[in-house]
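Sample intake sheet
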Amino acid sequence: MLDRSLSAARRGCLVAFIALAGSPVALAQWTSDASLNTPVCTAVGDQIQPKLKRAPDGSFRLAWFDNRSGGYDVYIQKLSSAGVPEWTADGVLIADRNQSSTNDFDMEIDAEGNAFVGFSDDRQGSPLKATVAKVDPAGTVLWQRNLASAGTANDPRLLVMGDGSVVVAYIASLTGPTNAAIELYRLNTADGSNVWAGSGRVTQSEPSPVRPYNTGDLARADGDNFWLTIRRATGTSFSSGRHVYCQKFDGAGVAQLPNTTAPMPLLLWNTDGLSIAFYPPAIADGEGGLFTAWYGGPSNNFKNRVQRVDSAGVIRYATPPQGSTTGSQANCSADFIAATGDMFLCWPEKNSNQSLTGVGAQRFDVDGNPQWGTSGVTILPLGATDKSFVQGLASADGAYTVAWFDYTDAINQTVRATRINADGGNAWSPDPIVTVSSNATAKGRMVSERDGNSIVLAWHENRNGSNNIYVQRLNADGSLGVDPVLRCSAADIAYDNGEALPPLGQPGGTNNGVTEADYNVFFANFFDSLPICDIANDDGSPLPPFGPLATNNGVTEGDYNLFFSIFFDGCPA
């Protein structure tokens, strides 16, 4: 650890330095305080159901539903790589709706950092239609496209294609024999116009006999093709069985399986039924194929399973592997790492009468073989307190970070997390589980996004009398806030003798990390705005290679704040 002891004279110099520099701006970084987290929107009224995506430059977009002015409107905000909101405080309005309730929606980011947000919309009147909006990196809504539908549109899913166009798929609730179909469009990135010919709309349905189709998810396939997962019902009643199917489309929206002459979705599972609230994810396998997962069965014995389909539409696993052969697993979360071909699952574990809840996880190799035993890893054994929104993201090294809501009573929750090594052992010690949000309050709809080997979590929470949006960065070592290793490396600007490190100095000196030599060099050069002090973006986040490049106007208070927060807060050993 960095030695914090400084002589009285040096402390006096620092006091004078701060006085000369003026009052520093607040540190523009992810908070490390689990009782605070990072607020994204704390406007009046309820803000709920956040969606979170990372842009290629390391910044993030969050979208949510917001009833600050009546009706659940659609808002969006940009966070810098340091976790600082960059657009209008409390978000940019996309759609002023009058809807008193909500359903699901989606957001995706393209290679240029533009956000596409898809949602059900009542602004054109009844019935609801699907709208897709494009928001540029400056927070300007470039266009909105309201999509014509044969019925009421719900739960849109989006997919950005290689040319920047966006595919949208949604559930169309219909009258008449079809009952529910899936409608798809492909929209030009420039103006939201149709890519596909005619009406621009492709429909997946099965009206005779009635087999309602519900959208699962979208994923890229090979070339200009894409995958759609489908939850297909056996009938229209509440008790009808719900099964897992998929279909592959070419770039023109033509279904490919089993062939283009007589296309029919590919059956993946119909042995028992899916939960009414679960829709199978679509995850690209990096080879043009598809990974998906689901849970189903009787309510006292749910089992989760995975399946892989190759680019030709051939099912890889004759029997879909289970995450665990024991217990009852609900609402699984899936992730995939292309580097190894491994797939990961996590889930809340239940006893037969669902009175007890635990948390489990499993890793599968490319051939579907469980890697953490037939029962997976027990993160938390069965206990009386409920756990929900269990979700995980894997790293290229095979480690798996899992987070969940941990109920303190029937209403309130904290956020907790753990990290599992590739071999199934605990990555963190002495306590393998950390608290991400310590406030025992009513929370909902947690989502997660990868940020290198770290993850960022977002949720809505009733902390101040109404629901607001909060986020938290969780690092690979279990710490909260800015990555401690990269953050400290940014302040390591000199050898122990005070000579500048490369590229501003010559190689070959002794360097024991951030020491008083770095302090002396920074102190001596800051007021002259010399390049050696330019270690941060204007928002206080580390410059490359220790963080993504954002707005940087040379030596500013962002550099000052980052350096001295590192120097006095200490660095990992």
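Comment: The longest helix spans residues 8-21. The first strand starts at residue 38 and ends at 41.
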